[in-house]
Specification:
The structure is a single chain. The longest helix is centred in the N-terminal third of the chain and has 14 residues. The protein is built from two helices and 47 strands. It is mainly β.
Length: about 725
């Protein structure tokens, strides 16, 4: 415990002291308006130009003098709800027959305090000042495109569905953007090819438009239109609140076919008893075709994920299953459209469809022959369908994994008031007698802007199982500015086991309730204080209580942007039969325990920022101590360093465990389209050291050269277990 206290004191000393660039109270900031505040939706007009524009973030071309500027104070969401921003923003929009251009001047009376730390693609948010465009090209108020940049010229693009419930950051558009500092602040410039977008037909049309701007040294989150804070962060994606982009003259849409061939060469080496060396020269191809203006078909052959980052090292110190993050680009694209139920942020006990079950077995990758994916919308329906075929593979333990087909189909229909009903079908089949299937029905009802209800029911199918194979849940969520309530009941039968999904803990009846009260203060020192509590009550199907957790947490957000939370949890645990945490046996019995936690997060707009999480107290028949320390450092405009350290110490009756997991990620961005990254991890519990190195050069939009090196070592003998080096080339051919 002394070591944890030492780390805590050092961390707080480094991060809690406000530094230059920290958010400070603007003495001239206007007072937040009352909840009745409203504003007319702004209209921004597009001007035609035949003049050439160079996208460099400078805005010095003659064409910009012809634009009809919109210049105003945006509206804050934080720290002052819907108050005018402390700085003005000037928006100009032009177009020609192929491109839509945005030029945005972000004025700042203290330009020396403008902060940005990353120029890597899709890394702008959370790393400093940023400007984001949101375009609803069908004016359906549910779906949009998102494009963002920062003063370093970082690029970000995404497709947002269902008002922010699904954000596809893996979508990589052919788009040109840049950002630059100047004497009056900074400027953002975008050139968006119409061919990269889908939009409604018409000679002259309007789109919905929202623009967000973060002014990090004042801790301001601002928008073109006022977004009530009580509606939550996702309200920025509600198209009915947005302004209008008018007088757009889009070209007629034609055939949109993209072809992505790839080739790779490399070597894989396996060490130890199964020693092997394999040289590989391979290739494959992907196709993307727009079936309609809202529906896309992806085809893939000899699918490859060589450039995917290595899995995060995790030491499981619970008695239940853990889920790892998906990092493969093909499955991340439009992944939100396959989401069933309320999502992993709300439902923690199961996930009906987990794409990591395709092509990964016991953390070993299984080659994929290919497949097809259909995603998008057709009228009021959201459609997502996937079929993939794996190759027969011999695993490290010499077992043979047969060639298997995976099918996932998700259909969802919009109903009134931003609600939906839907179904999902899953089928994993190797042979007619080796299969796993599931059928699920779900619905979500937004009763008001603050109240949401959702429900789901699922049945799994497997050979020789005909009962006790269902699951489901029902939830109630209330979000207001001062109170948040989340109630959920989950039912999982003992034999419910969809192999294409994830189940943390079978055979449970779980009642979860959480309530949080928030008081917004917004004075010189404090932004808000909050208190939360809840109950997690878990029984088996005989209504015998197994787990009861009652947490209490108090938190404060300082005006500097730092956050501090302190809490305690009262727990009851019934273990009906001997169980285990790793190799430590947990005896059958009843355990009443207390644990405490301390969490601190420093303001992210500092060159050095971080998070500290500490848990200590009783656990079963002994004690636990855990510490998570993570941080990021901006060494220069090109170099960023991330470090994470996790320490777990269990001292139980039948054994002890001390584990350390240390990871660091060094990223050097030569330009926004060219970076090198080294990701190194050390896991003492599993005696493993791993290194992942990648160079990624986008020599043209959506066309890359990758150099990848991966190595794993057994730290008990400091001998390598496997090593991979690959060179991969991709190319976009757009028709």
């Amino acid at each position: 415990m002394k070591s944890i206290r030492f780390f805590s004191l050092v961390f707080l000393f480094i991060f809690i002291i406000p530094k230059q660039g920290s958010a400070q109270l603007n003495e001239t900031s206007p007072v937040a308006p009352d909840t009745a505040f409203s504003a007319d939706k702004p209209d921004i007009y597009v001007t035609w130009t035949d003049k050439k524009i160079k996208v460099d973030g400078v805005l010095d071309e003659d064409a910009w003098n012809e634009a009809k500027p919109y210049e105003a104070y945006f509206f804050q969401r934080e720290p002052l709800d819907r108050a005018p921003s402390s700085e003005k923003t000037r928006v100009m929009v032009l177009q020609d027959e192929k491109m839509l251009y945005f030029g945005v001047l972000c004025y700042d009376s203290e330009p020396e305090k403008i902060f940005a730390s990353s120029m890597r693609r899709d890394r702008n948010y959370g790393s400093g000042d940023v400007l984001e465009l949101l375009l609803d090209t069908f004016q359906d108020n549910r779906n949009c495109y998102a494009f963002d940049t920062n003063p370093l010229g970082g690029k970000g693009d995404a497709i947002v569905s269902d008002r922010g419930n699904h954000v596809n950051k893996q979508w990589e558009a052919v788009i040109y953007m840049d950002g630059k500092l100047n004497e009056s602040g900074w400027a953002a410039e975008f050139a968006i090819p119409f061919k990269s977008l889908k939009y409604k037909k018409g000679q002259v049309v309007d789109w919905n438009l929202n623009i967000s701007r973060e002014i990090m040294h004042r801790n301001e989150e601002t928008y073109l239109v006022p977004i009530p804070r009580e509606l939550g962060h996702m309200a920025k994606f509600r198209g009915e609140l947005w302004g209008r982009l008018r007088n757009i003259r889009p070209p007629q849409q034609s055939l949109n076919l993209e072809v992505y061939p790839y080739t790779l060469a490399g070597q894989t080496r396996i060490y130890g008893e199964n020693k092997d060396r394999k040289n590989e020269v391979n290739g494959g191809i992907d196709f993307k075709y727009d079936v309609t203006t809202q529906l896309a078909l992806d085809l893939t052959y000899n699918t490859d994920f060589a450039q995917a980052e290595a899995d995060e090292e995790i030491v499981n110190v619970t008695r239940f299953n853990i889920r790892r993050e998906e990092k493969r680009e093909f499955f991340l694209q439009n992944a939100g459209l396959f989401q069933f139920g309320p999502g992993s942020r709300t439902q923690r006990n199961y996930i009906l469809f987990d794409s990591r079950t395709i092509g990964i077995q016991d953390q070993q990758r299984i080659p994929l022959l290919g497949g097809a994916k259909l995603t998008g919308r057709a009228g009021k329906y959201s459609i997502a369908a996937l079929s993939m075929q794996s190759k027969q593979t011999t695993l490290a333990d010499n077992t043979v994994q047969p060639s298997t087909n995976y099918i996932a189909v998700r259909l969802k229909r919009d109903v009134s008031n931003d609600s939906h009903i839907g179904l999902m079908v899953l089928n994993q089949m190797a042979t007619s007698h080796d299969y796993s299937r599931a059928l699920g029905l779900d619905g979500l009802w937004n009763v008001t802007s603050a109240i949401r209800l959702d429900a789901a029911v699922i049945k799994s199918f497997a050979p020789d199982i005909s009962a006790d194979d269902m699951a489901g849940d029902v939830g109630f969520i209330l979000n207001k500015e001062w109170i948040d309530i989340d109630l959920r009941y989950t039912h999982i039968d003992s034999l419910f086991n969809p192999k294409m999904g994830f189940v943390r803990r079978p055979n449970i009846r779980n009642l979860d309730s959480d309530i949080t009260f928030t008081k917004w203060i917004n004075n010189r020192y404090l932004q808000n204080i909050a208190f939360s509590s809840g109950l997690s009550y878990i029984t088996d199907h005989h209504q015998i209580l197994h787990t009861r957790d009652i947490p209490f947490t108090g938190s404060v957000t300082f005006r500097t942007g730092d956050q501090l939370a302190i809490g305690a949890t009262r727990s009851y645990e019934f273990v009906p039969a001997p169980s285990s945490i790793r190799d430590i046996q947990i005896d059958a019995g009843v355990y009443d325990t207390w644990s405490q936690n301390l969490d601190f997060t420093s303001y992210r707009a500092r060159p050095v920022n971080g998070t500290l999480d500490i848990v200590w107290g009783q656990l079963f028949d002994g004690w636990q101590q855990s510490l998570l320390l993570s941080g990021s450092a901006k060494v220069s405009n090109h170099l960023n360093v991330d470090v994470a350290y996790t320490y777990n110490h269990l001292d139980l009756k039948n054994g002890t465990l001390r584990s350390h997991v240390l990871s660091t990620r060094w990223t050097y961005s030569f330009t926004p389209d060219f970076f090198a990254k080294a990701y190194v991890q050390w896991n003492t519990a599993d005696k493993r050291f791993s290194g992942n190195f990648i160079i990624d050069y986008a020599y043209k939009p959506k066309s890359h050269i990758y150099l990848v090196y991966n190595e794993n070592q057994d730290t008990q003998h400091w001998q390598p277990t496997d090593r991979i080096i690959m060179l991969k080339l991709t190319y976009l051919w757009q028709i």
